[in-house]
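Readers of this paper often ask what the protein records in our data store actually look like. This encoding replaces a full spatial description with a residue-level series of whole-number codes. For reference, a complete record is included directly beneath this paragraph.
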Amino acid sequence: MHTTIQITADQVLAALQQHRGKNAGIHVRALVQAITGRESNPAAQERRVRTLITELRLAGNEICGKPESGYFLAQNPGELEDTCKYLRSRAMSSLMQESRMRRMSLPELAGQLLLERDFPKATTHNQEPL
């Protein structure tokens, strides 16, 4: 019987301590292997690590990374800036797709998102906005 090791945010952060700077990046599969000590890793564990990295970033940890470099802790402000630009570009691409599908301008969509954030009950699908 194969048991799955539950990976924690602390384990991810501890493993990333060995990966400072872009040149020391580690891809998610290798990161899971470093944490679990196992060669073969279920995709669920890779998703778990990605989710934990998002949570750690939301908590203010400077975890950088792009598909070509893997994950790493920022070694300098330039690396952090590069990752922030990459994340912003991905976010803007998603928002642009949504705005086109809804046939509204990006500023209109941004305004709608702000309203939903500030007045969540007023902008549900079953109610008219205030």
